Amino acid sequence: MKFGVVVSEGPYTHQASDTAYHFVTAALAAGHEVPRVFFYHDGVNVGTRLSIPPQDERNIQEQWSALAKEHGTDLVICIAAAQRRGLLDKNEAERQGKDADNIAEGFRISGLGQLIEMGIDADRLMTFGD
């Protein structure tokens, strides 16, 4: 089965990103496909490379980055939600005249078309968050 996954809550204010991560890893281990995860609303905050959780806590951003590297899962951050929250990749930072970017490895910024495409291609669309 091919799953599409949407994460719409922040990484340290809600359980959604952790639950989604565990769902995706379990689905992949069971032989299912998860070609894309779309981060929307506050869920885009999962993709910042500048968060520094305490050493005795999990680093959900690093977990997602490692998953993308190992399985080739496309981690897409909604551009409109990202801009509102100050998340920029190199190209968007240059386009907006900003001097820095902060997107973590394995993540990329794109539009809602990626969410629509994922919904069309997936057998099931799973949403984590309110």
Q: What can you tell me about this protein's structure?
A:
The chain has 130 residues and is of the alpha/beta class. Helices cover 37% and strands 21% of the residues. The chain has a five-stranded parallel sheet with strand order 4-3-2-1-5, with helices on both faces. The protein starts with a strand and ends with a strand. The mean pLDDT is 96.
Mean pLDDT: 96
Helix count from the secondary structure assignment: 5
Main sheet?
5 strands, parallel
Task: Tell me the total number of β-strands.
Answer: 5
The proportion of residues in beta strands is 15-25%
The class by helix and strand makeup works out as alpha/beta
Global geometry? globular
Q: What is the ordering of alpha helices and beta strands?
A: EHEHEHHEHE
Helix content: 25-40%
Cα-atom radius of gyration: 14 Å
Strand order in the largest sheet: 4-3-2-1-5
Give the termini distance in whole angstroms. 24 Å
Uncertain residue ranges: none
Oligomer: single chain
Write the layout of secondary structure elements.
Elements: E1 2-7, H1 16-29, E2 33-39, H2 60-71, E3 74-78, H3 79-84, H4 90-95, E4 107-110, H5 112-121, E5 124-128
Parallel strand pairs: 1-2, 1-5, 2-3, 3-4
Helix pairs in contact: 1-2
Features:
alpha/beta, 37% helix, 130 residues
Question: What is the compact description of this entry?
Answer:
This protein has 130 residues and is of the alpha/beta class.
